[in-house]
Amino acid sequence: MHLLRSCALPRLGALALLVHAVGCQPSDAPPARPDSAASEVASIPAWGSDATFDVGTWNVDWFGDSGNGPGDEALQLRGLREVIGAAEVDLWALQEVVDAAAFDELLAALPGYDGLIADDPAVAGGPEWYRDFGDREQKLALIWRTDAVEVGAARIVLTGENHAFAGRPPLEVELRLDPEGSSIEAVAVLLHGKASADEESRGRRERAAQALHRHLTATRPTAPVWVLGDFNDDVDTSIVSGAASPYRVFVDAPDWSFATSALSEQGLSSTVGYADMIDHHLVSDEAAAWYVDGSAEAWRVDRWIDDYGRTTTDHYPVLTRYTLPGR
Fold it and tell me: Do residues 26 and 282 make contact, with C-beta atoms less than 8 angstroms apart?
């Protein structure tokens, strides 16, 4: 496996730092701006542990775009780095990263972590598919702990279904987990589904799910796979009233499961102002075998960040734990 930027830094504890219109595109009206002095951050506890492989997905609400999302970019950066730095989660999938320079600034504030953004030249097809809107497109990004994960080949997949994926085709990344121990080869697929609670949008999400299922069945039939992201729909039923989940192709598949399905069944939400779980972890049966039962959580970090939805993002991090073989 050809590895990208795998600096072997030591595992560190939490950082001692202060610090969606869902899935919309730049033509949508931005939300109200907060007062730049309105947020304070309390000490956030760690969520991950050395005994488990901990995974998160987080929509970070137009990060790096001064015209959309939270109005104070420096304040948003402080919130993101405090949460990620404190959480001690091994692998993060992010959605709605707009500015590469802002992403690099976030990484620079996270010792022991590295990252990759969808339009990086190291991502096959990335610059071609993720530089629309004057290079202000919402991008997928991956952040990982360098002592727990090594990253190999990365590519944009299913570009032929670009419309079904709302112009954001998935980012597929090869991983080596626990490189100093088990060295398990795995795959992460980052997803940001089509937004909106209308039947046409639900149909596009359904076509995207079916295309992704065909792709993974053909190319990763026996690999541990995590599909992580803002699915922009739920998995027990659709956000479109009376309709089935557009992800039924995975819900019904015997070799796939949503590690986050219990959160949907409990009626929980993954966003500040929306009633449904729309951010999920979909895992192949190889990865599901390692899942720590009951570990899925929509992590309410708004307990520690004042005015969280207006200063940081309107989604909560959604997290799961796994016990890798050999640990």
Answer: no
